[in-house]
Amino acid sequence: MSKAKGKPNAMTPSSSLAGSAMPSRLAIDHVEPEIDEGLSAIKRVAGEEVRVFANIYPDGHDLIGAALCFRHASEEDWHEVPMQPLGNDRWVGTFVVKSLGSYFYTLRAWVDRYASWRGDFAKKVQAGRQVDVDLLVGVGLIEQAAKRADGQAGERLADWARDIRALSKTNLADALKLADDDFLVGLASRHADRRSTTMYRKELEVIVDRRKARFSAWYEMFPRSASPEPGRRGTVKDVEARLPYVAGMGFDVLYLPPIHPIGRSVRKGKNNNPHSGPDDIGSPWAIGSEEGGHKSIDPRLGTLEDFRRLVAKTQEHNMEIALDIAFQCTPDHPYVKEHPEWFRWRPDGTVQCAENPPKVYQDIFPIEFENENWQQLWEELKSVVLFWAEQGVRIFRVDNPHTKPFAFWEWLIREVKAQYPETIFLAEAFTRPNVMYRLAKLGFTQSYTYFAWRNTKWDLTQYFTELTQTEVREYFRPSLWPNTPDILT
Amino acid sequence: MSKAKGKPNAMTPSSSLAGSAMPSRLAIDHVEPEIDEGLSAIKRVAGEEVRVFANIYPDGHDLIGAALCFRHASEEDWHEVPMQPLGNDRWVGTFVVKSLGSYFYTLRAWVDRYASWRGDFAKKVQAGRQVDVDLLVGVGLIEQAAKRADGQAGERLADWARDIRALSKTNLADALKLADDDFLVGLASRHADRRSTTMYRKELEVIVDRRKARFSAWYEMFPRSASPEPGRRGTVKDVEARLPYVAGMGFDVLYLPPIHPIGRSVRKGKNNNPHSGPDDIGSPWAIGSEEGGHKSIDPRLGTLEDFRRLVAKTQEHNMEIALDIAFQCTPDHPYVKEHPEWFRWRPDGTVQCAENPPKVYQDIFPIEFENENWQQLWEELKSVVLFWAEQGVRIFRVDNPHTKPFAFWEWLIREVKAQYPETIFLAEAFTRPNVMYRLAKLGFTQSYTYFAWRNTKWDLTQYFTELTQTEVREYFRPSLWPNTPDILT
């Protein structure tokens, strides 16, 4: 006997039919777009269309009607637009997303008895068959539609049925013509019997972002290098002075690598030297010192006040600041003392540093996500993103997201966008294709690509065909960096 | 706020993490074969392989292990076979189905900490790094594996850990070599930490049929035409006499069109004449008279006893009888009086006959499946199939299945196969491709095809590519009739 666990829609053998509802006569399948069975959302920007295709078909030869249903997550009721048949049981319908956040869409279909009757009836008339009883069948269907319709529509349908019935006794030709009236046929169709309507078994999600999610031009700048005077370290204020220069080139995003305090105890020197001198300033990605962690600004770069002012000034130049989210710590980061359980300890009592053998990053402790206190860790990291969102930042470039759990990002991005739906997350993942696509599916707004390594015509054609002509285009927004601080092909 | 109805796997925003289990680090997707999200089963015959592919990948760079799990529906516990990586996160595993009925399969994957450690460790050794602490990390992992393993395996692993630890203090080179022992590495892998094992979220079904479901050669014979004497009507006994002739040509299925009593009151004459004379015998598909319905044999063809004898004799010739299931009635069928609600009545008090405008089949009443008493109808029709199964018939050619509800066939075929898993149902549907494929997906064992109309090389190449090179091959078994009694191209 089958357990039928894998078959939620199938009746279990030996189950009694008594008391069960009459199953649907319609199948709805091969819905597009639909990513991973609807477990992942598709993406759009406000004002764009969502065009939905599906195979919709009943048993037998009846004609059917179908509608595309959609609603914003904030709405309870569905909007409904009629779908059009494309032939071979394929249907299409379209709606436009207007507000940020999530929309849902699904499909409805039903047997259209009047349209089915009308199709068969026309063939019988053409074949010269006696049709007086058939005409009464059609009149009966119109009368049923009249009962379902409200007010004026109901009256129109009732009048129509009465007129056909009367004419059929005196002038069959005129009755036939009247039964075929386009306006009234449409009215009957709109009031078709929906009792046996089949609803598609899933609600599919669209995540709607703002326009910049789809296209933006990023300029990367290290604040410490923004000084106009050789020999003096740059500051956030120096960045402010460079805004007209960057905006003048047409960029609309100014991206700053991490601006937090840099670790001291195992700071690296020049050219990856594991020992630093007193003037070495270390890597901005070596985050955390006695001066603070991910919610602090390196005092050498300025104050939080300076930073908020930079955010505002950047907007005056029609640009936005993008910040770097790099969830990793130096040995001096406050987290290491406060939450030793968030790091991986070795048998000799040291913490495992970041490695990509044979490369070693002695100045960086990766966070151990598989720890007993993971819930508190996730909440703390979320608070980091929200902290910078509260300073006015709405774009985050996420460093190495593929070395943290998928579920963490899915949760974090949803949480942040629930408060700030206009937030953009760019995934800095150069890794295996499945992993890059998974990060986009779970919520990243934009994604780094292999563009830097696709340099011939053939390479580019292949890659852009994949990005634009397959279902990838529904959820993966490619960000085309020709180079980065550590990649120059 | 999202309702997240369409996102069963996503955490709802603002949900608290407290108390929830640590989410999986692994993704499993793009499983093949998997038909319509696993709502439809794939098909095999006993002794065949099921080869399963999937994308399986964790975040980060850890190595993983994966297994294909399968069980017959009658079994509680899973069998497990290791999967092999094919590159680019694609994995494959294979199992063989041996018994008739349903099998289920699913996938498991886990992070293999020892294999991950070993891979990184080898790179560090190669780079000439100091590895004594790293070696102790590996020893720790072996010790954990030893605790998970039973009896001898546990002892072997514990010994191994102790030996490496001891050697590492005296002879690091030998310790390194020992840590790389292939047999022990395999043993550690088999006892990897499965606590965080990720199970694929679905159990997929395989319907296993007997060999004849995959290939058979059908011979169609009208018993009334089986008489050796011109002018005398043939009988079931005459069919028996023809068995050596049919078997001699190499056929293994002898298919009989309906053998039930034929309606009398509106019997058709020759050449579709709506009026019959006293010697006209009518269409075998016009089922039902005062002499009985779908569970009776036309007395002119013989008795049930004759029929059972034919079934047995056919087996002696290494053939099987296939019967026709045509769920439709003449006006004289007992069902019309006993269950008037199973037919569609017209405003003039007559029953709607079968039509495919402009064609009319006055001698046939289609069954109205959308009636209030549908449960009783379904049970009665099931009892028809079971009746003939009890007479020894295990192959049914189903007439026009596409004009009856999909859910009806899905239910009926499961019910019959639960009692007689060796039963074969051939769908006689020449209709739209989606409908033909849907019937195969819901359970039909074999299907008529467009073969009769595919006559050029290009046609045949296209069609057989579709049937054999796409997912269609997993559930649709093409039956290649070059012609039928009413189709000759």
Set out the fold topology:
The structure is a homodimer of 489-residue chains.
Chain A: E1 26-32, E2 42-45, E3 49-58, E4 64-72, E5 79-82, E6 84-87, E7 90-96, E8 101-111, H1 113-126, H2 132-148, H3 151-170, H4 172-179, H5 182-190, E9 198-199, E10 204-209, E11 218-220, H6 236-248, E12 253-256, H7 304-316, E13 320-325, E14 328-329, H8 334-338, E15 354-356, E16 359-361, E17 365-366, H9 374-390, E18 395-399, H10 406-419, E19 424-428, H11 433-442, E20 446-448, H12 457-469, E21 478-479, E22 483-484, E23 487-488
Parallel strand pairs in A: 2-10, 11-12, 12-13, 13-18, 18-19, 19-20, 20-21
Antiparallel strand pairs in A: 1-3, 3-7, 4-5, 4-8, 6-7, 8-9, 8-10, 14-17, 15-16, 22-23
Write up this protein.
Two copies of one chain form a homodimer. Chain A is an alpha/beta fold and 489 residues long. In chain A, 31% of the residues lie in helices and 22% in strands. The first copy, chain A, has helices spanning 113-126, 132-148, 151-170, 172-179, 182-190, 236-248, 304-316, 334-338, 374-390, 406-419, 433-442, 457-469; strands at 26-32, 42-45, 49-58, 64-72, 79-82, 84-87, 90-96, 101-111, 198-199, 204-209, 218-220, 253-256, 320-325, 328-329, 354-356, 359-361, 365-366, 395-399, 424-428, 446-448, 478-479, 483-484, 487-488. In chain A, strand 15 and strand 16 form a beta hairpin. Chain A is elongated and about 110 Å long. Residues 1-14 of chain A have low confidence and may be disordered. At the A-B interface, strand 8, helix 1, helix 2, helix 9 and helix 10 of A face strand 8, helix 1, helix 2, helix 9 and helix 10 of B.
